[in-house]
Backbone:
């Protein structure tokens, strides 16, 4: 049987009395492009830290391609490349030297230097290779971190919010690059706050909240099973008083622009439009859209908050 | 064992101090030469344990430099990596605790020995110092430099900021090295402090090292080697245990 790229079995992590992870069970298949989502403090970074060996689980176990991250840590870490969230670097060395050192720690010598040069070229860092990393911009530093995670050609790559604070152009470059890596057979695990990225890139999504996996589904299934549609109306007046039945569906409103959230099978678009017209208002524009991952994410995490508050 | 990984970390540590060699080797040599100039003037014409005062100073200053620089290399490198956050790049690799220990200690030992050799060569212009037992000199150099390198590693693991490190250096390493017979023979001390010196491992490091040059010392060569080796083994065990447990470096 083929081992999953990453496997988490009943992983718990306590910091004193605070439980950061609560019996996390998760398997990520080889070759997948996986999104690990969740609000701040959900436990995503803790889970990554345990996988990378920066933290130890209070109970449970984690494996990378079947190698336990504690008892078989050498193999596990050689199979794994992690791009950390923070822009950290060693100020003493140039970009290329740092990458060669990092490969060296994994036991990868001169034979890997052409690969490092290729990485520099692919990430548009060739002309910066002899510069100290501290002299680079934030975006360039981010590229170096990505190259650093790939120097030993790991099969599984974890990117912890790689596009935070990155400009649009670089973000596109990064996504094109990670897509290529995925197509080449690498398993990619991504955490991000830009949900449209997860929606566009990832084939499977887990939502972590309060240290537990709340949702684990294929992206399309997750988006498809959401029982809502959104209807945007542009009215002829910003002061329109909507009929009660329509007002109850309002998700957001900015003057004459109103967004309504309709439940599939219960709220019909035709009925809504008729009711608005019946109240004496004219419609300037009408648009519909399916829920985005962001809508689903907010809803799921808000529901959990409500449950917790109850 | 990940031999190449260990070697890569060792070379990285060497290159780290080499990139600021004026600060890591040049400055300690100048400081030691200033001590030499001041105390050499005071001790001019005097003999200590039958050795000319200025010559007596040289091995003491060499060993003090080894002690301080070996400690400084590991402690500052490790603390800086913790403070800057780049320690994660090493922690996420397949390097074992022993390999990390070996690479850091080895590089710090090289720096300590380099400072000592440069100091010896420079002072040789002004004062001639015999070499009676080169083997003993080498053994004491490795054991003492190694011990302080490992102590620096422990301090780096424990420290969360440079202030913690400075406290360790100024309130522990500095007094222990100054009060260990760098500038004097412990026979010149009052009886209480003479006895107290025998409980200071740094005293054995300096005394054994000096015996290698002059063939005389306050403690026997066996005692000096035994204490230095014992202390080196003890601190090494503590450091490797800390690295294996991820003490203060893995949450």
Residues:
């Amino acid at each position: 049987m083929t081992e999953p790229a990453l496997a988490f079995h009943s992983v718990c992590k306590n910091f004193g009395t605070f439980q950061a992870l609560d019996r996390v069970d998760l398997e990520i298949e080889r070759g997948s492009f996986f999104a690990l989502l969740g609000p701040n403090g959900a436990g995503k970074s803790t889970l990554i830290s345990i996988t990378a060996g920066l933290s130890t689980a209070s109970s449970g176990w984690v494996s990378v391609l079947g190698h336990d991250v504690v008892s078989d840590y050498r193999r596990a870490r050689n199979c794994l490349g992690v791009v950390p969230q923070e822009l950290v670097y060693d100020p003493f060395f140039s970009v290329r030297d740092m990458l060669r050192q990092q490969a060296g720690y994994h036991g990868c010598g001169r034979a890997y230097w052409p690969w490092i040069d290729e990485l520099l070229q692919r990430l548009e860092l060739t002309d910066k290779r002899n510069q100290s990393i501290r002299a680079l911009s934030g975006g360039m530093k981010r590229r170096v971190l990505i190259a650093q995670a790939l120097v030993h050609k790991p099969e599984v790559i974890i990117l912890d919010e790689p596009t935070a604070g990155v400009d649009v152009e670089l973000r596109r470059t990064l996504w094109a690059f990670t897509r290529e890596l995925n197509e080449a057979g690498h398993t990619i695990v991504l955490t991000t706050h830009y949900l449209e990225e997860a929606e566009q890139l990832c084939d499977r999504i887990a939502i972590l909240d309060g240290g537990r996996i709340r949702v684990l589904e294929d992206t399309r299934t997750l988006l498809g099973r959401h029982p809502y549609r959104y209807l945007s109306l542009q009215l002829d007046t910003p002061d329109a008083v909507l009929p009660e039945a329509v007002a109850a569906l309002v998700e957001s409103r900015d003057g004459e622009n109103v967004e309504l959230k309709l439940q599939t099978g219960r709220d019909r678009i035709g009925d809504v439009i008729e009711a608005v017209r019946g109240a004496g208002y004219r419609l300037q524009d009408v648009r519909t859209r399916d829920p985005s991952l962001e809508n689903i994410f907010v809803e799921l995490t808000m529901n959990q908050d409500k449950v917790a508050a109850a | 064992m990940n031999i190449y990984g260990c070697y890569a970390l060792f070379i990285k540590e060497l290159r780290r101090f080499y990139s600021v060699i004026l600060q890591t080797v040049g400055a300690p040599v100048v400081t030691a030469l200033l001590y030499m100039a001041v105390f050499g003037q005071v001790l001019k014409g005097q003999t200590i344990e039958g050795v000319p005062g200025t010559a007596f100073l040289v091995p003491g200053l060499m060993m003090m430099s080894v002690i301080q620089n070996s400690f400084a290399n590991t402690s500052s490198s490790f603390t800086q990596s913790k403070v800057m956050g780049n320690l994660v790049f090493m922690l996420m690799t397949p390097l074992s605790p022993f390999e990390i220990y070996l690479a850091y200690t080895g590089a710090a030992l090289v720096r300590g020995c380099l400072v000592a050799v440069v100091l010896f060569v420079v002072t040789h212009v002004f004062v001639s110092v015999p070499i009676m037992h080169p083997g003993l000199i080498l053994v004491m150099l490795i054991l003492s430099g190694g011990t302080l390198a490992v102590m620096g590693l422990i301090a780096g693991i424990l420290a969360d900021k440079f202030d913690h490190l400075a406290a360790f250096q100024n309130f522990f390493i500095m007094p222990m090295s100054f009060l260990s017979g760098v500038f004097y023979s412990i026979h010149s001390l009052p009886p209480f402090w003479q006895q107290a010196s025998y409980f200071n491992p740094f005293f054995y490091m300096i005394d054994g090292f000096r015996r290698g040059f002059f063939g005389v010392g306050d403690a026997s060569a066996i005692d000096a080697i035994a204490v230095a080796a014992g202390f080196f083994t003890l601190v090494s065990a503590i450091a490797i245990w800390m690295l294996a447990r991820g003490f203060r470096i893995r949450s």
Q: What stands out?
A: DSSP finds eleven helices and 14 strands in chain A. The radius of gyration of chain A is 23 Å. The longest strand of chain A covers residues 18-28.
